[in-house]
Design brief:
44% helix; five-stranded mixed beta sheet; alpha/beta; 7 strands; 10% strand; 455 residues; single chain
Length: 455
């Protein structure tokens, strides 16, 4: 068969065969490249150390969360100069037990008329047995000489024949929103520890009552955040009766405002904060919704960017672009922390960043190219923290605020209703703001509980 046909025909057949094999080889190379890229994602999976995924999503046995901080070289534990806290004796104890010897342990002499000398003391701090205090309010009436009958009024907070007081209301709110305790376990705590029986319905009623009374404070927090020059914002998914909603946070160093919305888009921001942020620097990740409204300036969360760059360094080990940008961001943060930032160094950092954005990246590193394009788009928002000392380089404060929703869900499983999520958002906003301002969160909840109804 190989010798059949003329030489020209045989050459034509060979060229066709070669052409077919070259095409087949190109297709196979393309297929191998595709499969190699897919396999690389499994070999270098995203986890909490190289992305924004939570630690709970990590595979069993995977490396624990990797901090972006560099090793300090210091030993674990308290550092020199750190003031420790220990249990101290009080000057005026509530109960004093004087223990005196009755006779000599050597000769048996009776010490009935002996003078005693104090040689030591110890104190035990404990909680007294807890029982509810029931206060009864009795109103009276009087009949005037003019025959008019005047009846006294109950205090504003005494609304029904039998009700729970402000201390119970604030304790329920505190246990639910601050300590993340589910409703049924709150009823168990009150029955077992406080000797007061409250139904689950009663707990829900008290939580709703706390929310209503907290509304003015909640709105004040929102307005306070809106008036701040630097605002951190973030969002996370919330399971409400099996359906996904979104918890939004807008926070500053002194206040935290949390809200629930069905949308993750700009619609949620416009409805929660309709006034916009035209006088503020908004610190966020690259989620597009944050760049659609009225905002004076932006600062991208460098912690997000650094985790992505760590991932690219693992995924594309042969590239050094991601490592150089990671080092540049880390160096900028370190210089600011150490107080060594100067206008010249700021200019150098921004110039180096511009050169990195102009530098071509290997077309095979597709995800890295996408990241570079995103950095070009938001280039003015990466190092703004170098120009303004009040602007943080990361959005960790917002992530810490939203973590409370995740903890609540892990303990309780989900929110049964949107109203339940709204209650948690309202009370948690009050609590987190109180903590940021150095207040006792339970004391503040108690003051709110003493207020009249806001209906």
């Amino acid at each position: 068969m190989a010798n059949e046909g003329t030489i020209d025909e045989r050459f034509d057949a060979l060229f066709k065969r070669i052409d077919h094999l070259e095409k087949e080889n190109a297709e196979l190379k393309k297929r191998v490249k595709y499969l190699t890229n897919r396999l690389s994602k499994y070999e270098t999976p995203k986890n909490s150390s190289n992305s924004s995924k939570p630690p709970s999503s990590d595979f069993p046995g995977s490396k624990k969360t990797q901090s972006l901080r560099e090793v300090s070289g210091r030993k674990p534990g308290g550092q020199p100069g750190h003031k420790g806290n220990t249990l101290k004796m009080v000057e005026t104890p509530d109960v004093v037990h004087e223990i005196k010897p009755t006779c000599c342990t050597s000769c048996g002499h009776n010490f009935e008329s002996q003078e005693f000398i104090l040689c030591g003391q110890r104190q035990v701090s404990d909680i007294p047995p807890i029982r509810p205090i029931v206060t009864e309010y009795r109103i009276f009436k009087a009949v005037c000489n003019c025959t008019h009958e005047t009846i006294a009024e109950y205090p504003a907070n005494v609304e029904t024949p039998i009700s729970y007081g402000a201390n119970v209301q604030s304790m329920v709110a505190y246990l639910s929103a601050r300590q993340y305790i589910p409703v049924e376990r709150i009823t168990e705590f009150f029955a077992s520890v406080l000797n007061l029986k409250i139904s689950t319905g009663g707990v829900c009623y008290l939580l709703e009552k706390s929310r209503r009374k907290s509304v003015p404070h909640y709105e004040y927090i929102r307005q306070f955040v809106l008036g701040s020059p630097v605002i951190g914002a973030d969002e996370t998914g919330v399971n409400i009766n099996g359906k996904n909603h979104w918890a939004w946070v807008f926070q500053t160093t002194l206040a935290t405002f949390l809200g629930i919305h069905k949308s993750r888009g700009s619609k949620a921001i416009n409805e929660i904060m309709p006034e916009g942020f035209e006088n503020a620097v908004l610190v966020t990740d690259c989620w597009a919704s944050y760049f659609k409204g009225l905002t004076a300036l932006h600062q991208l969360c460098t912690a997000h960017l650094m985790r992505e760059l760590i991932y690219f360094g693992q995924l594309y080990a042969q590239n050094d672009w991601s490592g150089r940008l990671l080092g540049l961001i880390q160096n900028a943060i370190d210089l600011r922390k150490q107080g060594q930032l100067t206008p010249i160094k700021t200019t150098e950092i921004k110039h180096t960043f511009s050169l990195l954005l102009e530098e071509p990246v290997d077309p095979e590193f597709k995800e890295l190219i996408t990241f570079q394009k995103r950095m070009i788009k938001y280039s003015t928002h990466v190092f703004y923290f170098l120009d303004n000392p009040d602007v943080p380089p990361d959005n960790n404060g917002s992530e810490r605020a939203l973590r409370n929703f995740k903890v609540k869900q892990k303990v309780s499983g989900l929110f049964r209703s949107t109203n339940g999520a709204d209650i948690f958002a309202t009370l948690r906003s009050v609590i987190d703001t109180a903590i940021k301002q150095g207040q006792n969160p339970y004391s503040l909840l108690n003051k709110i509980a003493l207020l009249g109804l806001t209906e």
